């Protein structure tokens, strides 16, 4: 699958923001239930306000933070989630302290933060801390089920473990495969898929069923 997706879409080079690990963490929260183009607008607002810093975010009124991240949608909810993340981040001593932790410990701590679920936490682990953790999303379930790689009984953790056991541990491969799956899910393997445009069509039971 990896080689076929790479041939169709080319290297993706994710994470698509260049502001360092903390910006990646912020982006991982803001991208919940929205497109990345909206996240870019919110991050731009934070840059313009010189507020892309954990201490600054914690020091400003939550209503002000919500207005800055308004383009990302669900901005009142996400403002609270960002502040939860920042309290943990500051309390843990910042990035240099956190990067020394074992991956399992770090993942448990991330998932203990209110508003950080498995997908967001694994985004942070893979793209901010460069840990070999595969990120599963709705596109992954859809593509893997349609191609017959998995049955419908998998949950997030079992699918993540299944991929990692076959490809890992490999940060670069996990990064690129996740990005390619998102691109393919957006452009080709949609809810109503464009099967004629798909490199995987000859290996896809969904296409063959048609």
Automatic annotation (TrEMBL):
Superkingdom in the source lineage: Bacteria
InterPro entries according to UniProt: DNA_glycosylase, Endonuclease3_FeS-loop_motif, HhH-GPD_domain, HhH_base_excis_C
Ranges where the HhH-GPD domain occurs: 30-187
Keywords recorded for this protein, A-Z: 4Fe-4S, Endonuclease, Hydrolase, Iron, Iron-sulfur, Metal-binding, Nuclease
GO molecular function: endonuclease activity
A Pfam match: HhH-GPD
Cofactor(s) this protein cannot do without: [4Fe-4S] cluster
Keyword Metal-binding: yes
Record-given protein name: Endonuclease III domain-containing protein
